Amino acid sequence: MAGTWIEVDLDAVVRNYQEVVKHLRSGARCMAVVKADAYGLGAIEVARALERAGCEAFAVTRVEEGLILREYGIRGIILVLGPTTKQEWPRAIAAQLQLTLSELSWIAELNESYSELGCPMPVQVHLKLETGMGRTGFRFSELEQLAISLTKAPQIDVQGVYTHFARAAQRDQRYTLEQYERFSAATIRLEELGICPTWKHVCNSAAFLDYPQWHHDFVRIGTLLIGHYPGQGFSGRLTLSDPWVARSQIVHLRKVPKGTNVGYQSIYRTKSETQLAVIPVGYADGFGLEPHFTPQGWIDFLKIVIKNLAALIGVFLGQERVELKGRSVRVAGKIGMQLTVLDVGMQDCALGDEVVIPLRRTVANPRISRKYIQGGQILSERILEEGISLVSTEYSVVEEFTGEGCR
Which residue, 154, 288, 289, 368, has fewest beta-carbon neighbours within 10 Å? Predict the structure, then answer.
């Protein structure tokens, strides 16, 4: 994707990890959540940098994410948080991925699949407990049957037990406290039934900050590692570094007179003589896309209403802006699919000049080149071509994984 790229500062990711580690309770470790391509940064290089910094455990959502990490040399614990399928189990087991158990019917099938592979060590799993997220996990009423099923599955080694908080980032703590009480009651019941996992973990980034007494054996940290707080109320609690800068270059520049219409529906009209610059990025690349937020109160609701009412009369509040030579300039009209027009005024600029664009990590097109910087130098670059799988990289040499799994 010529003319647009993302710079990822791996030193910043490591600093964020070290900041988290400084605040861990004694005996707890950080499990780095690198799901969704490490929130858009790039899971391979982020996990490598964190493993070099001493991180021993990683979490992903899907089996294929864990397999990619193993393929590129990550040796630490890799926990798959999401549901898995029978078709995925052989490769996951061979790569020594730790799987989440959240469904009773999987236990006998997973035990059978493992036995068929003839591996010398049991498959390691974590039990997911449903305490109020409403997504996946065992309910308290299922624990007795869960224990019975596990005793009939000798090839399954329960390494961990965990839950996921639904409202940890909200200031009202009552629901989170209720979830933790349910988790505690469930783990006590499991122990009474003879199921004693090695590790417990409940804290996401928000809970890690608010409930240090719940750090247990691991905390699962994703948002903080990429330099974001889980909510405005957490700002300043840690010293975080932003590892992400998205850049694009001016590919077309033209001086236009006052009154020039710009873009689809001509919603923008120049108010004076100016320069219009085109950059090769648009909403197909994630530029201008925002997640849907549910209003968290009347103030949030009124902001949404006012913004939409203003748009009806041609006033666009919160219009995207980019940075050009240290100055903020606005998008002229609508963001296009792959091209966007900027009103740069009469300031001195030229073709090829760089602009910094506010591109959200999780919606950024993965085909935008990632340049990984460490020690002030470009360590590697990830390039994906349109319509083709990974075709060109400058990743450092990968040592073959030499674990004791079946390969």
Answer: 154
Tell me the per-residue pLDDT of 151-184, one tens digit each, with 9 for 90 and over.
Answer: 999 999 999 999 999 999 998 999 999 999 999 9
One domain for residues 342 and 284: yes
Query: What pTM value is reported for the model?
Result: 0.87
Pairing of strands 340-345, 244-249: unpaired
Beta-carbon contacts of 350 under 8 Å, excluding residues fewer than 6 positions away, are 250, 253
Residue type at 139? R
pLDDT digits (tens, 9 = 90+) for 323-336: 999 999 999 989 99
For residue 115, pLDDT beyond 90: no
pLDDT in tens, 228-263: 999 888 999 999 999 999 999 999 999 999 999 998
Q: Measure the CA–CA gap between 372 and 9, rounded to whole angstroms.
A: 6
Q: How many C-beta atoms surround the C-beta of residue 166 within 10 A?
A: 15
- Asked if 289 and 325 sit in the same domain, the reply is yes
User: Which phi and psi angles does 199 have, rounded to 5°?
Assistant: -125, 150
Q: What amino acid positions are annotated as catalytic residues?
A: 35, 264
Same domain, 260 and 216: no
Q: Is 357 within a domain?
A: no
